[in-house]
Hints:
Blueprint: E1 4-10, H1 22-40, E2 45-49, E3 60-67, H2 75-85, E4 90-92, H3 95-101, H4 106-112, E5 121-123, H5 131-138, E6 143-147, E7 157-159, H6 168-175, E8 180-184, H7 188-191, E9 194-200, E10 203-211, E11 226-229, H8 234-245, E12 253-260, E13 266-272, H9 284-299
Parallel strand pairs: 1-2, 1-3, 3-4
Antiparallel strand pairs: 5-8, 6-7, 6-8, 9-10, 9-12, 10-11, 12-13
Helix pairs in contact: 1-9
Amino acid sequence: MKPIDVVILTDNRYTNPVERNEYINNVLLEDQLVQDALEAAGLQVKRLAWDDVNFDWNTTKYALFRTTWDYFDRFDEFSKWLTKVSQETILLNSAKMIHWNIDKHYLQDLANNGVATVPTYFIEKGDTRSLAEIHQELSWEETVLKPCVSGAGRHTYKLNSTTISEHETVHKSLIAEEAMMLQPFMNQIVSKGEVSLVIINGTYTHSILKKAKKGDFRVQDDFGGSLHEYTPSPTEIEFAEKAIRACIEMPMYARVDIIWDNENKLAISELELIEPELWFRFNKDAATQLANAIGTLLKK
């Protein structure tokens, strides 16, 4: 049996799902497109849940994070697994990159490196101030509150003077266990949406525009958000590639989420380097570019 070159990582919900819907079908399609591209590049590939207890991670050269979309709900378990597996195989993106990107404090690093980001105030674990007190200190009237380690819109709340009080209890319970972040609400997330630019091995490949459903501000499809094909301007592409160059190392793949701030300037809302949805179904060539880049690594 030939050694495995790449294991595509998913979570156990998506290894052999019994129930199927559009969401799960897209998960399976995206992973299949990556597997097809890797195999077309001559690589031996296997697809597994990241927490598969029966697999010897020493037997694969690389482990490629794709649809591990339960890690933030099982963060302690995932962190221990990450420490162990990073000593047994090479992770893509690297363990160093994952540890940096998994916590949204990285936004401060980007800002310090000259990349425009959405203004962010970090509320550290154990902070006993109320949301009302923090808002008064910042003089921010309309904000978004979310955890520093999160995904899929988990505990993401839009706050203003009339809704702060009803979120004090949930904030108090969350801040006792984890750091939170507060950002001024960017109005154009509703009117224009959020653009995700995909960067493979440092080079832009394609984009998606995400728009929230009417009456909401969250663009994730978990909350009814919609996807639209999008052609970015050269300025937007350069902005995204600059953000990637400001990372602690060059990622193999990245998704740069950008919005227009309240002054109509580009700003990074998030930089997704762990397991971002990359929408290969909208650009299959991007999967080929990813596979070729991994194939080049294997030859070194």
